[in-house]
Amino acid sequence: MNHKLLSRHFVHKRSLAFPSWLAGIALAFLALTALHADEPSAANSAGHDYSQLIEQLAQTIRSEMEQKQIPSFSIALVADGKVISSAGFGFQDAEKTIPASGKTVYRVGSISKLLTDVALMQLVEQDELDLDQPVQKVLPEFKIADDEHSKKITLRQLTQHRAGIVRESPVGNYFDPTEPGLKATVASLANTPPVYEPDTRTKYSNAGVSVIGLAVEQAAGSSHPNYVQQHVLEPLGMTHTSFEKNEALAEHTADGWMWGYDRPAFAAPEFLLGTGPAGNLYSSVEDLAQFSLFVMDQHPTKVLRDNSLTEMLQPGVTPDGKPLPYGIGFRVSDFHGHRRVGHGGAVYGFSTQLEILPDENIAVIAASSLDGTNNWITRICNQALEGMLAVQNDQDLTPPVSTEPVPRSRARSLAGVYSSMPGEASRTVTVDWIGDRLLLWKGTFQREIRSRSDTGELVLDDRFGFGTSIRQDQSFLVIDDKTYTRLSDAPPPEIQDEWRDLIGEYGWDHNTLYILERHGQLHALIEWFYYYPLDEVAEDRFAFPDHGLYHGEELIFRRDDSGEVTEVIAAQVAFQKREVGTKAGETFKIKRELPVDKLHELADSAKPPREEGNFRPSELTELTTLDPSIELDIRYATTNNFMDTVFYQQPRAFAQRPAAEAAVKVHQELKKQNLGLLIHDAYRPWRVTKMFWDATPSKMKNFVANPAQGSRHNRGCALDLTLFDRTTQEVIPMVSGYDEFSPRSFPLYPGGTQRERYYRGLLRRAMETAGFQVYEFEWWHFDFDGWQKYRIGNLSFEETAN
């Protein structure tokens, strides 16, 4: 798949109204329009009736969008020389007032490259450019750090990603929000070393296609966006397509959404990339359907000669005659014995696939307004292509497969760390569960395991795709017929000291690079989804693995005069180190919105919300009376808390009896591992929740309860806690400190060390097994099942004890 163009931010002024797939927020139902044909007769075309397929696809899309929580989705089917169907599902705007349609405009990312390459081929036809002459013939200023290498690079190599240059330019790269322009972007390549010798290895490069765009400008005497608009888009009738943002498209453009493994969706940034020819295109599936007709030579307007188009769709060959994955821009592959051409696109908040079977004259174009969903979209596209082939061959449609969550009892039995069998290259995979989700960390991605609704077979099914089978065999895990054996559940060793200050976050809010440790090896989590193990080359210098987005490139950590790490240069892009949370042992503090006296005044004059209905009588029970070995560190009875204020007169912990007894059970079970529970907070009077809310800045309110609804702490059904070592009485270090208002507090925050995440997961599993659920933003906060059955309380500890 092509480069994923993307980003996100932990806190944003606009938050998504549909739920996070990990958060357990109440579902805001997506209104889905039915898949429909452009014209009444389009579904029944040239003697082929596609209506059953169209209805099947609509049912699949509705179900999948709800499961994967996709905000909007559009799809167009092309067959028999026309668009046979075009539709939208969900809503294109955050307020959910405008239904998505076939005309909804999406940012289509790397599909941009195909339009740039069509423009290139037009100028080749006019003898303004030559695919096989060095780029410097048309762009004398083009260079990289190795002059001899620069002189060898041709336009053909750039179109086929065989030029051996970096993936991203130092300026104007995918991460750079400054919109520097094409010339500055290409000029910044001058100091980048070659990754490979030209034509020796395929190395996908957005920077390379930007060089093509600048060559188009030079040869045409016009800006790249203007040239493509006048000579490609307008002739093909692509009226809702442009390389530039404009008011005409704005009203049709979908809002894009980002997400991460550990956090809900948030609004995507909207800046244009410096590598514009490679990724700045806006378009609709209906316009891209017109483009697909051109590719299949079925459009009434020809913008290229037949031989030029044929050359674009044929895979290139290596110097020794082996086929390449790319033609001129187009990715070329096999689809069940049929030649498939097209491209995917992924840019901040959007995912798009253009899939064409040119020899069968069928195509499907689909787009979503959620980042990182290209493989999911490909699954929908494959169902459409298979269906159109079946219709044309008078065959039955294959029923789609649906899945459901793995039952918790089965999920628990799968949880653990596994390694490949002896004699194979060592590879470690981890299986863990949280709520009703069973997660697999394997290779590059974190995946979700679900159960097939028809057979009960375990498969990977999430936004990244579907189909890999998972089977448990005693202490073995079998993943697509490869066997892994369960390892000991002992705590991982401490991280190497020399790596400790490298771990952290780097870069921007919209696109954060994480450096973390996994299973004894430093890893980079880049572009939100891609885990890459790093090989240490020298002190503060590491290499990306020989696969993925950045193969052949390195990370170099930079330090200031005092030795503090300040940035990492990753694949020629500078990522500044970010300040996140607090240093180990320090207590997180906020700047209060109001003075303490005013907070007390407001809380004393307010009353808890009125609640109607039948509730259980309160049975608040002091935890240490059930088991005195439970440790307490009640921060709100001291000034050692996020507000520097004493809220409780006594350091005591109460909970409703069923919750208290469940916690004691966990504490006693943990004794087998020489661990125990340390309680930071339990029952909390409502007036304290009111003070927390009024004091906390709005951007941090995810970490405090809204007094208008009351807190589960107020009901005596929530515990804030951590683990301690029974021998040393020391608190076990976690990824973040208690009450740290930062993303490091998220239960699935990916950073830190393997040991820190191990203990965080151990605590969560122990509590969830006993009937508690972790809060989506705080690894230490657990709500007891049935908390709704108890009223909000406002008694002080002294009144409670009496």
UniProtKB/TrEMBL annotation:
Q: Name one GO molecular function term.
A: zinc ion binding
Query: Could you say which residues bind Zn(2+) here?
Result: H713, D720, H781
The chemistry this enzyme catalyses reads: D-alanyl-D-alanine + H2O = 2 D-alanine
Q: Give an example GO biological process.
A: proteolysis
InterPro entries (alphabetical): A_A_dipeptidase, Beta-lactam-related, Beta-lactam/transpept-like, Beta-lactamase-like_AB/R, Zn_M74/Hedgehog-like
Q: What is its EC number?
A: 3.4.13.22
Alphabetical list of CDD domains matching this protein = D-Ala-D-Ala_dipeptidase_Aad
Where does the entry annotate site (Transition state stabilizer)? R684
User: Does Signal count among this protein's keywords?
Assistant: yes
List, from the UniProt record, the residues annotated as the active site of this protein: E778
Keyword Hydrolase in the entry? The reply is yes
Cofactor binding note of this UniProt entry: Binds 1 zinc ion per subunit.
SUPFAM superfamilies for the chain: beta-lactamase/transpeptidase-like, Hedgehog/DD-peptidase
Show which residues constitute the signal peptide. 1-37
User: Cofactors per UniProt?
Assistant: Zn(2+)
Q: Where is the Beta-lactamase-related domain?
A: 57-373
Pfam assignment, any one: Peptidase_M15
Keywords recorded for this protein, A-Z:
Cell wall biogenesis/degradation, Dipeptidase, Hydrolase, Metal-binding, Metalloprotease, Protease, Signal, Zinc
What PANTHER family does the database record attribute to this sequence?
BETA-LACTAMASE-LIKE 1-RELATED, PENICILLIN-BINDING PROTEIN
Q: What does this protein do?
A: Catalyzes hydrolysis of the D-alanyl-D-alanine dipeptide.
Q: Which family does it belong to?
A: Belongs to the peptidase M15D family.
Annotated protein name in UniProt: D-alanyl-D-alanine dipeptidase
The organism encoding this protein is Rhodopirellula europaea 6C
Q: What is the lineage of its organism?
A: Bacteria, Pseudomonadati, Planctomycetota, Planctomycetia, Pirellulales
